[in-house]
Write a structure and sequence with these properties.
6% strand, two-stranded antiparallel ribbon, 22 helices, 542 residues, mainly alpha
Length: 542
């Protein structure tokens, strides 16, 4: 492992600062660090290759970062589902029909192209970093052993980004060389991409640090073994979908018939998912006693979180828009911050918690603001002095002129509000949670059920934390549980596809007439990418 590189957080912070100042550097090339100095020591080499890549996992502008910003990976995986919706509220949130198009699966929208561009930008940076590391070995800046560790980390990061491309776009160009041009790259089948990612992660795994990525220290925010275990578990769980090269017919490979090699052991897809989930358990990941602690301001010591985007308002420029854009304006004002009064939970997701019945799952109140709201023990009021009252069971695509135009819908809560945050709450100290152990238990439960075994233990371990009553682990119960446990974490699209629900009618959404072939379970290849690369073919149905 690359333990000879100490103070990694400081290095990554330096990379963030360098990135933020890049526009200034572009104005006068004389201010740039000479190449001979940028890569002359192992520390400088790490800073200007790997640490620089990590600075792109979060973001501070639209479509950049894996989570935290608008119109990127998170929005494509959330506002296309039955979990959440951004309704039109009079003159607010029309945005050229963007959010309505996402929810109704009309995907000729800008974020589909911008997300593709972002993901490949990081892939290209990984390829260049590997090329630079290999050159440093030739010049004896680092040893062959150091190269193996460093290169494995970059390959794992690249695999992470191809994982998102596999999920979102299906059949895409697979480029692993800095000398390869994306405009000439060959498109590979979805199953080929799946196998390539699996092999890349498996070969990199022994050389990744056996450390906690979410804890502050030398490996904070980095792709470590636990992160790789989680990705492999996700891949195994979705293998039926992701190894299917013709997703528009009525057939796909069966999990029991898919063989995946797990550290030299051949297992079927469900067994492989369980294998990697058990690896995380054996490494000491656990459920926190307090569900909300995982999303608290100081959540960097969570035993449950596996991979997070480090947030520090005094060090990093990563932003988190999700709370800011969901709250009513007066709700934000009560915190001394602005808000945008937009995204809400759907009625169907609210009902999944049991809202409106005598048995409401506690996570409803952990994840959502509903009804009246207090800040500092004071009731939040509207401009007319009446209490702000979010209406969880009121929602329409277009609320213009509706009695509850501004207050319809339960709003995102989940993360503790950082009262010392900057920029109206966008720059907070809560680390953004990408992967956590509760998901691992639910994956294992689902894999057991799909393999014909009993998944009750894992499902009810998650439920018992919030004192929810015992439930049988069935596929329907697991899908509902995943919504309640993982609400606002960006998993719902993937879940609905795996459960064969994404292309169907739900909540306010009616299945499109041409969606019966399931072609919308992947997004279209951006036309701009096809025009630049004649080797690319559009995904079926678009």
């Amino acid at each position: 492992m690359t333990k000879y590189l100490k103070h990694t957080p400081a290095l990554i912070m330096a990379a963030f600062l360098a990135l933020a100042m890049s526009s200034c550097l572009d104005e006068d090339p004389r201010d740039r660090v000479a190449e001979s100095e940028a890569f002359d020591t192992p520390t400088h080499l790490y800073l200007n290759t790997i640490a620089n890549i990590y600075s792109y996992i979060g973001g501070n502008s639209d479509s950049q970062g894996l989570q935290g910003t608008s119109r990127g990976v998170y929005d494509l995986c959330t506002f296309t589902t039955d979990e959440a919706i951004i309704p039109i509220r009079g003159g607010d949130w029309y945005d050229g029909g963007l959010w309505l198009n996402l929810y109704t699966h009309n995907f000729n929208v800008g974020p589909v192209t911008d997300t593709w561009t972002y993901l490949y930008k990081v892939v290209v940076k990984c390829n260049k970093a590997i090329n630079r590391l290999e050159a440093a070995t030739a010049s004896r800046t680092i040893t062959a052993a150091q190269l193996l560790d460093l290169e494995s980390e970059v390959r794992a990061i690249r695999a992470l980004y191809y994982y998102y491309l596999l999920d979102l776009y299906g059949s895409v160009p697979y480029v692993r060389s800095a000398t390869s041009d994306l405009s000439e790259a060959k498109q590979v089948s979805r199953s080929t991409l799946f196998n390539n990612i699996w092999e890349e992660l498996s070969s990199a795994l022994p050389h990744l640090a056996d450390e906690r990525s979410n804890w502050e220290g030398d490996y904070y925010g980095r792709v470590t073994r636990g992160v790789a275990y989680f990705i492999l578990a996700k891949m195994a769980l979705n293998a039926e979908i992701w190894t299917d090269d013709n997703w528009t017919d009525d057939f796909h490979p069966k999990g029991k018939d898919i063989t995946l090699i797990c550290e030299e052991e051949p297992l079927n897809a469900w067994e492989a998912c369980i294998y990697w989930c058990d690896k995380l358990t054996n490494d000491g990941y656990r459920l926190e006693d307090d569900y909300s602690y995982n999303f608290s301001v100081n959540n960097e010591n969570s035993r449950e979180n596996i991979f997070t985007i480090p947030m520090d308002k005094n060090l990093y420029s990563n932003i988190f828009v999700n709370l800011f854009r969901s709250r009513h304006w007066n709700h934000g004002d009560a915190y001394g911050m602005a808000s945008e009064n937009g995204p809400s939970a759907t009625i169907s997701s609210v009902r999944t918690y049991g809202y409106g019945t005598e048995e409401v799952d506690k996570r409803f109140w952990y994840n959502l603001f509903a009804e009246t709201v207090e800040v500092d023990e004071q009731l939040v009021t509207l401009y007319n002095g009446e209490p702000l009252y979010y209406q969880p069971l009121v929602m329409e695509f277009d609320l213009t002129g509706h009695r509850y135009q501004k207050t319809a819908g339960a709003r995102m809560r989940k993360y503790e509000v950082d009262r010392t945050a900057y920029s109206d709450g966008l720059l907070q100290d809560n680390d953004i949670v990408l992967f956590r152990y509760a998901d691992v238990l639910l994956m294992k439960s689902e894999a057991k059920v799909r393999n014909g075994d009993n998944g009750d233990e894992e499902l009810n371990a998650v439920r018992s934390r919030v004192e929810a009553p015992w439930r049988k682990a069935t596929l329907d119960n697991l899908l509902a549980e995943r919504l309640m446990e993982l609400h606002w974490e960006g998993w719902r699209r993937q879940d609905l596809i795996r459960f064969d629900r994404f292309h169907r009618s739900y909540d306010l959404r009616q299945e499109n007439q041409d969606e019966a072939d399931r072609h919308t379970i992947v997004f279209p290849i951006p036309p701009s990418a096809i025009s630049l690369n004649p080797n690319l073919e559009q995904n079926p149905g678009y």
